Amino acid sequence: MSNDTIRDSLERSQSNSSQLHRDHPFDELLSRQRGYEPLPTAVVHPVDQNALLGAVEAAEQNIIEPILVGPERKIRDAAEQHHLDLNGFKIVSTEHSHESAEVAVAMVRDGSANALMKGKLHTDELMEAVIDKTHGLRTGRRMSHVFAMAVPTYHKILFLTDAAINIFPDLMTKKDIAQNAIDLFLSLDKGLPKVAIVSAVEMVTERIPSTIDATALCKMADRGQITNGSLDGPLGFDNAISKAAAEAKGIQSDVAGDADIILVPDLESGNMLYKQMSFLSQVESAGVVLGARVPIILTSRATTSGLARLASCALASIHYNQGMKG
């Protein structure tokens, strides 16, 4: 498949999407990103079709300027196998995936790249290089992942965090998870976000620790330890996204039924929620890791949607230019 063919395919796909849905929720992200220069992005170990397609598609749309970091022979073999034209793409050759991650991180540190994009390697392997205390990309904030989900039955993009990085976050980690998601939302200029801290029940009980954490997070927001968002919790997922469910349980809240951000108790619950929405409800999602020196584009390995990959790159570009640059 040539790059021209990819471009034509994307245009047809977007045209069909407009005909079926008129305005896809991700159209706004892609339109907003067009005001920025392509974001120099180190694509880490892109040695399979999906990783290369993500880079090529985003380059075709002028969202990112990809720098392919990995074994050159494997990258070119994958491109040849899937008929992708890499002319004009910079390739930084490495021996293996571990070195790819280290070199990509070093490129961010020396200013050669302003974002990272995960290719065909495990998330843990990439993040090991990112969180290295000496040579990594740590900041004072705990890193966390945010999915932006285009849910056909919801009235706006729904942000879900953290379903990919922090396994069993403690209270202070949840504080950073909330702030990271809020900062991402603010970079989209959509006003102050409504953050629903969800659990199995709406009442505070010591038998379910996540309800205690939710209560503490709300009080931390009251005291300015979490800023620029409206928080409420504990909330059940149903009354976080359904006003009818909230009213049925007598919950009076600006957040309930109109949440912008869903903060889950732990990775297990968040990951299962994400996969249920993706595979049973056909929800498309864009994904990015926040809290490092630069955004890290991190979509699911099962993602085959070109629009979702483009939206992930657009989300990283917008956040870098609006919330991090300078």
Protein architecture, described:
- The chain is α/β, with parallel strands linked by helices.
- It folds into two domains: 1-138, Rossmann fold (3-Layer(aba) Sandwich); 139-291, Isopropylmalate Dehydrogenase (3-Layer(aba) Sandwich), CATH 3.40.718.10.
- 44% of the residues lie in helices and 17% in strands.
- It is built from twelve helices and eleven strands.
- The protein has an eleven-stranded mixed beta sheet with strand order 3-2-1-4-11-10-5-6-9-7-8, with helices on both faces.
- Helix 8 links the parallel strand 7 (194-198) and strand 8.
- Helix 2 packs across helix 12.
- The longest helix has 19 residues, at 3-21.
- The chain is globular, with a radius of gyration of 20 Å.
- Mean pLDDT is 91; it is low at 12-21.
Q: Which outline best applies?
A: globular
Oligomer: single chain
Mean pLDDT: 91
| Low-confidence segments | 12-21
Indicate the structural class: alpha/beta
Percent of sequence in beta strands: 15-25%
The tally of beta strands, per DSSP, is 11
Strand order of the largest sheet: 3-2-1-4-11-10-5-6-9-7-8
The number of domains: 2
Radius of gyration: 20 Å
Largest sheet: 11 strands, mixed
Kindly report the CATH topology of the largest domain.
Answer: Isopropylmalate Dehydrogenase
Question: Helical residue percent?
Answer: 40-55%
Distance between the termini: 38 Å
CATH class of the largest domain: Alpha Beta
